[in-house]
Amino acid sequence: MSDQHNSSAQGTIDDLDRLASQLQSESEKNQLQIVSQLINGGDRGLTVLMEFLQSRQSNPLDLAVGKAYQILYRIDTPKTQEFLQTYFPEGLVPLKSDRDIDYRLLQHLLAQQDFQAADSLTRQKLCELAGEAAIKRKWPYFTEVERFPAPDLYTLNSLWWVYSEGKFGFSVQRRIWLSVGKDFSKLWPKIGWKKGNNWTQYPNEFIWDLSAPPGHLPLLNQLRGVRVTASLFSHPVWSQWNQ
Which of 9, 191, 219, 223 has a Cα-to-Cα distance from 209 of 20 to 30 A? Predict the structure, then answer.
């Protein structure tokens, strides 16, 4: 019985060592699968994830890095807390802002995959970027969107993109919009905001997890027309986005 146990334990260690090696060399898609497998690897699996994060510390916009960080963040043991506080005291994604806007809570919500709360907070942050008048009316004008600082939009998009395995974010919506010839009537059904002639009803008909179609989140108020969305998708920041 003891030999069987030792053999099984050794097999598990060998499997984890193999996964650790693959994690450094496989494609991004395979890396995401490996990260998921390591969750079940106990303490050794967590150690592999921590070593991987440490080795990729300079590349926070790597989707496998984002998923590994998310797992450690959500597990929330003393060991993972100490590791994250030591190596990522400000979180994984750099929170740059030209308007001194605090994105820490948004990073926390997205790391926890609380997409509905993160969506509401994102709209709030867009109003903060637009200024006092937008905060009062609770939505920005397209002329205000045109003046958004690039670092802030980059931060907002990075947070959504990294913590959704590349599925959500303004850049994803914009890519789909470009793929349909900038035709908003074709965009809405593709991202799940409209079905037939009916707009998706907020909040119950939206999908608040990764089973949603690409580009489903974050939400923009399309009922007020497309000028705000068009301004956002035409912002100069996207010339810097190469993910």
Answer: 223
For residues 73 and 53, what is the distance between their CA atoms, to the nearest angstrom? 12
Helix (H, G, I), strand (E, B) or coil at 226: coil
Cβ-based burial of 175 (10 A; exposed 0-12, middle 13-18, buried ≥19): middle
C-alpha 137: how far from its chain's center?
27
Count of Cβ atoms closer than 10 Å to residue 187 Cβ: 24
Residue with the two structure tokens 């750099």: 94
pLDDT surpassing 60 at residue 111 = yes
Backbone angles phi, psi at 139, to 5 degrees: -160, 150
Residues 183-207: pLDDT tens digits? 999 999 999 999 999 999 999 999 9
pLDDT tens-digit series, residues 121-133? 999 999 999 999 9
The radius of gyration of the chain from alpha carbons, rounded to an integer in Å, stands at: 20
Tokens found for residue 243: 């993910």
